[in-house]
């Protein structure tokens, strides 16, 4: 006779969310461990190249997975080389990842989806080996970097604000404070979480951005100050909001030639 005793199963939405959250934590732990393993493998590879054989005889026996590691690295290397090879401008890591997902080999697409940190590890290795170059936040093939450097475009490209919103941050500063000298603008932007670190790393970055905004017609340069273009029916203003003309002239004397 079948058992007719009551049976119930309780499942809440919180149970599902907790299990999903735990899964995400485990995946993050796996990625961190994979990165640590790759870092250790790189260190061991370096040791194997420089240490005497007798020193390594009992300390560093042949690694049975060395061929597998080499094959894995070659997939990453080829994927990055392919992406940088077709680029006409510098690429952010996310640009490289997108290219690999769209155009990479089957193995490369699997790797970028399974362990995105592998891309950063390969970029670091290729930088060390001189097979890739980095300026600002962007990566280049050595050939492209040489070409852009010779044409004088490298600084503008490396710190391009198209993806970061830097252009909007500069414009908003002028909307809020009005006309400003470069020095006043830089003092304001140093506290910005996005622009501040770039100014600290490369003080020339702010001046390059100002020059680019003037070329694009988004700012106007009058003497030593910069301001937004007048909107239709907007009355013009006279004078500076940032100190006397003498102070501005003194400040301007220290500016790069293209801003004087």
Give an account of the 3D structure.
This protein has 260 residues and is mostly helical. The protein has 13 helices and four strands. The protein has helices at residues 13-50, 53-56, 66-86, 93-103, 106-114, 117-128, 142-151, 154-158, 166-177, 182-189, 195-201, 204-215, 245-252; strands at residues 133-135, 138-140, 220-222, 225-227. The strands form two sheets. It has a two-stranded antiparallel sheet. Strands 3-4 form a two-stranded antiparallel sheet.
Report the C-alpha radius of gyration, rounded. Answer: 27 Å
Q: How many distinct helices?
A: 13
Largest sheet entry: 2 strands, antiparallel
Q: Can you write the helix and strand succession as a string?
A: HHHHHHEEHHHHHHEEH
Secondary structure category = mainly alpha
Mean pLDDT across the residues is 75
Uncertain ranges:
64-68, 232-260
Q: Enumerate the strands of the largest sheet in spatial order, edge to edge or round the barrel.
A: 1-2
Classify the beta-strand content into a percent band. under 5%
Number of distinct beta strands:
4
> What is the straight-line distance between the termini?
98 Å
Helix content: 55-70%
The rough form would be described as extended
Secondary structure layout plus pairing:
Blueprint: H1 13-50, H2 53-56, H3 66-86, H4 93-103, H5 106-114, H6 117-128, E1 133-135, E2 138-140, H7 142-151, H8 154-158, H9 166-177, H10 182-189, H11 195-201, H12 204-215, E3 220-222, E4 225-227, H13 245-252
Antiparallel strand pairs: 1-2, 3-4
């Amino acid at each position: 006779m079948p058992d007719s005793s009551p049976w119930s199963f309780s499942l809440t939405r919180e149970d599902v969310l907790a299990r999903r959250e735990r899964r995400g934590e485990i995946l993050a732990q796996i990625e961190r461990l994979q990165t640590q393993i790759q870092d250790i493998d790189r260190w061991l590879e370096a040791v194997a190249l420089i240490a005497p054989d007798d020193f390594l005889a009992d300390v560093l026996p042949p690694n049975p997975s060395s061929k597998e590691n080499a094959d894995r690295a070659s997939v990453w290397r080829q994927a990055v080389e392919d992406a940088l090879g077709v680029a006409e401008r510098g690429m952010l890591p996310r640009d490289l990842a997108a290219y690999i997902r769209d155009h990479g080999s089957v193995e490369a697409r699997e790797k970028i989806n399974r362990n995105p940190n592998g891309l950063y590890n390969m970029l670091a290795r290729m930088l060390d080996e001189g097979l890739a170059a980095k300026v600002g936040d962007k990566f280049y093939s050595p050939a492209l970097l040489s070409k852009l450097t010779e044409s004088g475009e490298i600084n503008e490209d490396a710190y391009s604000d198209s993806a970061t919103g830097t252009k909007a941050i500069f414009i908003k500063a002028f909307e809020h404070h009005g006309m400003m000298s470069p020095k006043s603008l830089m003092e304001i932007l140093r506290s910005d979480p996005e622009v501040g670190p770039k100014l600290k790393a490369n003080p020339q970055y702010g001046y390059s951005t100002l020059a680019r905004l003037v070329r694009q017609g988004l700012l106007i340069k009058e003497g030593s100050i910069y301001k937004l273009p007048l909107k239709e029916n907007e009355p013009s203003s006279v004078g500076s909001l940032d100190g006397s003309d003498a102070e501005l002239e003194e400040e301007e004397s220290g500016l790069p030639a293209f801003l004087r």
